[in-house]
Amino acid sequence: MIVHVFDSAKSASQAAAAMFAAAILKKPDAVLGLATGSTPIETYRQLVKWHKEGMLDFSRSTSFNLDEYVGLGADHPCGYRYFMQENLFDHINMRETFVPNGLAPNLKAEAKRYDRMIEKAGGIDIQFLGLGNNGHIGFNEPSDRFHYGTQVVELTRSTIEANRRFFESEDQVPRQAISLGTGGIMNARQIVLAAFGKGKAQAVKKMIKGDVDPQVQASILKLHPNAVILLDQEAASLL
């Protein structure tokens, strides 16, 4: 695990964009693992800018998103497919994009299908991650173990409260999600995790300074051979 601390979230986000750009320039048919939420927005904005300037071509690349809320379809403004279209996919020429189907009639079958699709694509070359306040990555919540495959997750109270800001009321926040498992995340050949703000400082400290512990799912990244952590000053303040 390599940790970089930047003066601002914007600088860290641009560094993340540079890492993804480098991966695509090195391997034009790269398989990208993508994330949602507020953390990656500036990174996606930078990637779109470079694409529009003719610096980046995504036409041979494929992407797989980490997760999706159960019960939200592609046209729901709080869904992750919708988020990705608005913030990235509608502005670049990505060859294929995949997001778990939160409306699948058989969620366990959908989770297994998603794992097979990633395997068929050759695995993820570079995976983008945010960090939950409770140390989760994807929607892999604190647990007594690390889950390997894509799974249906019951969201914790802290995650529901953290995501409340994206919905009109807390009652509208889904209670379940389909998420790439921690093991699936660890299968990525390169991992880039970004965390910004004082609210993430405690989780960052536990991830970096604590033991590998499934109660802090992100702590397993210490065992990955090519994981890079990008922080702003506030997120790094307890290190």
Overview of this structure, please?
This protein has 239 residues and is α/β, with parallel strands linked by helices. The chain has a single domain, classed as Rossmann fold (3-Layer(aba) Sandwich). The chain is built from 7 helices and 10 strands. The strands form 2 sheets. The chain has a 7-stranded parallel β-sheet, with helices on one face. Strands 4-8-7 form a 3-stranded antiparallel β-sheet, covered by helices on one side. β2 (31-34), α2 and β3 (62-65) form a beta-alpha-beta unit. It is globular. The mean pLDDT is 95.
Order of helices and strands: EHEHEEHEHEEHEHEHE
How would you name the oligomeric state of the polypeptide chains in this document? single chain
| Order of strands across the main sheet | 1-10-9-6-2-3-5
CATH architecture: 3-Layer(aba) Sandwich
Q: State the helical fraction.
A: 25-40%
| Number of extended strands | 10
The biggest sheet amounts to: 7 strands, parallel
- In total, the number of domains comes to 1
**N/C terminus separation:** 14 Å
